[in-house]
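Researcher: Next sequence.
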Amino acid sequence: MGEPLQGVGAPGACVLCGRGFGDGAFCASCGALRPAAPTAPDPLIGAVIADRYEILAVINAGGMGRVYRATQRSLDRAVAVKVIEPLVLDGMDGDDLTVRFMREARLASALNHPNVVSILDFGRAGTAVNAPLFLAMELLTGPSLQNVLESGVALPAARVADILRQVLAALGEAHALGITHRDIKPSNIVLEARRGDADHVKVIDFGIARLGMERDITRRGRVMGTPHYMAPETVAAPSVDLYAVGVMLFEMLCGRVPFDAASAVEVLRLHATSPRPDPRKVVPERHVPAALAEVCIRAMAIDPAARYPDALALAEAITDAASAGPWTPRHSSLFPRRAAAPAGQVGGALGTADTVPPPSPGVGREGAPLMVLRSPVPPALHMPTVGRDEHIAWTKDLLSRPPEGGVIVWWGRTGAGRSRMLRETASIALRDGRHVLVVRTERGPAQEVGYTSLRRIIARLLDVRADDPRLADGFGAAEAPVREGLREAFGSSGVSAGGDPEATRQALIDALRWASGRALERAGGALLVALDDVDRMDGISRACVWDFVLEGLPTPLTFALTCENVPARASHPRVRDKELTGLSRADAHGLVSQAGRARDSRPASGRRISPLYIEQYRRWRAEREKERAPAHLEEIVTARVHALAPMSRRVLQAMAVVGSATSDRVVDLLDRREGVDDAWSALSGAGFLTLDGDRGEISHFIFGQVALDGAPAGTVQALHARALEAVEASPAMVELRAHHAIRARADLAAFVLVEQAAALRAGRGDHDGAIASLTDGYIAARTSFARAEIDAQGCVVFGRKLAAALHAAGRTDQAHGVLSEILQTIPPADAARIELLEELARVAKSRGKPEEEARWRREALESREEVRTSVRRVRQVLPATADRRGAQRR
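Model: Next structure:
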C-alpha cells in the first residue's frame, strides 16, 4: 500500500529525507551520513555466518570489528551483524576475549526496552572453535545524534528534552537490572524516524557494559569509554552514565563539549578537577535558558552525590526546564575535534545503516480466531468481504448439493484471508440449513503436546469439556477400539503411547468417527465441522484428522479446513480445495481509501494485497493519521509493535511465549504486576490480543512472531524459563517442558527432555514430530556451542541423532547436510570422526551416489590410520615420561 521508503531528490540525495547533501558529509535536514564511496570488496560480503545470516554490505567499523547489513534467512528480515575483526583476536588472548564477549552479549540481550537496540543473537560465526565472534541486532537506519549535531542542525529545547528523556528511559531500565553502559555519547544514540516528525531514540553499543560484580573481568589499566564523556569517578556505577548525559546536554546546548584537550589523559584531568563551565557564558549568543543551564551544571557535578540521584530524576528535571519556555539556538557551530577521537577510546559503536534496507515480503493471515464471537476489531475498522465472489459462488454450489461426506480445504499464503473464508463457509452452511460446529485450534506451544487438537475436536463433537473425566474412561462407548482411542487421547496425557503405533492411530480414528456420529445424532441433520490452521496442529492430531476425513465421512458430515500450503492429499476425490491469494489492486484500493489518504492507498501495479495487510493498514490510519504507512505486512506489524509502550511490548512478548493465558499468568511470567492490566487492555484495543473473559490469546500468530523476533535474546530466554517453572513439576507435559527448557537453558536436563519428547512422538507414529524435537535440540546445541556454553560433543551427539531420524524417514539430503556440518567440529585424529564418515557413506549410498560413498569410506580409512598413528605415539611417549618422573623422585 504505498511504495517503500526511497530518496526522492536528485542523484546523491539523502536516502532518509530525499533532500540534497550539498558539499557536506551530512544531510543538513536530517543529519544522515553521506554513503561512503565504493571500496575494495570485503571478504565477508556474500558469506553466510552461523548458517543463518547472509552478509550484504558494510555499515560501519568500530574498535572491535565491523558492522554489516545482513539478511536473516529463516525470517527474511534485515538485521545488523557485528563481527569481531581477526586482527583483534591476534592481538589479544582469544579465550579471554571470548569469555568477555559472551558475558557482554548476555548482559546486552537482557535489556528489553523500546529505546535500546535489541540484541537478537550472538556467538561464534561457525562451528569451528576458532570461528569469529558475532552479534546480531535489529537494523537501524536513522542518523546518530553525533551526525545531527555535526550537521549544524539547531535543536530546540523541546527536541533536546525529548531525545534525552528517551535516552534516560533506556538507561533507567538498564540500571534497574544492574547494567551500566559506560560509554554514553552522541555516536551511540541513534534517532529513528518512526513517529512522524518526532525522534525515536535507540541507545546502542552496550558492548562494554558490566555488572558491578563482573568489573574484574576488565583488564587493569584499560580506559573504558570515551574521555570527553567520562565521569571523574572510575567505578562502574549508574552515576557515570548520568554524567555522560549531562555532557551531552551541554553539547546540545552549546555546540561543543565542556572539556577538550590534545590528549585523553588531559581531558580526563579536566573532568576531574576543573570548574564546571556555564553554558550561558560559553555561548552567550545562543541565549541558553537559565533552567536548562542549571540542570546541565548539576548533572556534570564532580561529586556524584551532588548530581541527580537517578535517570528518572534527571529526565524530569530536563523536561521541566525545557517546558519553561520555547528556545531555539540562534547559531550552530561545528565540532573541529570530531575529525579524530583522542587516544584512549576503546570499543566501537554499532553504527547506523547508510541505506534503507529493501522491504521484506509480507507474511501473515486473517486475524480473529473462529471461536471468538466478540470480534477484536472495532466497528469502524470492520471490513466487508470483497474480491471473493468466485470463491463464495464455488462454496455455495458445493453446499447446495446433497451432503456427500466431503472435505473443503481453503489454502494460501499467510495473510490471504483463510480464516475469513472459513467464517464465510460456516455462514453459508448455516443459511443453507446445515448445523455448524467450529473448533478453535489451540494457539502457541500447547500444540507441542500430542493429542491437544484431537482432544478439543472430540470434546466439541461430544459437547463436553476436554477435561471431563468420563472421556479418560471411554465415555461409555460400546466398541472396544473406541474406548481404547479415548483412553489413549484423554487418559495418557501424553506420557506414553500405546503399543503398536498403527493400531493406536486406528483406535484414535475410530474414536473420532464415533464422536462424529454422536454429533450427527444430536444435530439431526447435515453438519459442517470447521477447523482452522490444520497444519499448526500437533502432529498426531493432524495425521488422525486427515486419515479420518479421507477414509470416508458419514454422508451428512462435511469438514471445512484451512492450511497454508496445498495439502498433499488434495488429489483425493473427497477433497475440494481452493487457493486464496491477495486482493486485486482495485479491491484493495476500495477498502483502504475508506481509512486513509490516497497516496497511501495505492498498492504497486500488479501486486495482490493480503486482507490482513489491509486490516493492519486501517488500524494504522486510525492510530497515526498523519504518518505514511509501511508498504508490506511484516513491516507495518513491526512498526505497530515497536510503537507500543514498554509494558505493552513485554506483555505481548510473554503472550507470544505461552500462546494464551490469563493476565495473572502474565504477571507471573513478567514477575511484576504494575502496568500489566493497562497493557492488557491496550493490546486488546489495538487488536493484538483477543479476550474471552479473564483469558486472552494472540489474535494472530504474526503478532507474536514479530514481538519475539524483535525481542532481545535474553528476554526470550527468561520468559521461557518462567514458563517452564509452571509445567516443570508435571510429568504429563514432556513435550511442553522440552519446548520451553531447550529455549530457556540448553543444559543436560533440557537435552534429556528433548530426547524423551522425540521418543514419545516416534512411539505414536509421529515421525515428523520426532524430527522436529530433535531439530530443536540440535539447534540449541549449536547455539550453546557458538556461545561457548558447551563443547562440540553436544552438537555431535544431537546431530547424529537427528541425522539418523532423517535418514530413517527417507530425508537423506537433510541427513547428509547435518552430518557434513558436525563433521567440521571433529578433529582429524578422533575416533568419533571415523563413525561419522561411515554414517556419511551409508547416507550417500541411500542417496544413490556411489562416488561420494567411496570418497567418505576412503576418508574413514585415512582417519582410522591417523588415530592408530596417534595411539602409537602416545604409547612411545608414556614409558619415557614415566622413567623421567621416577628419576626425579629418586
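Model: Residues 389-579 form a domain with the Rossmann fold fold (CATH 3.40.50.300). The mean pLDDT is 79.
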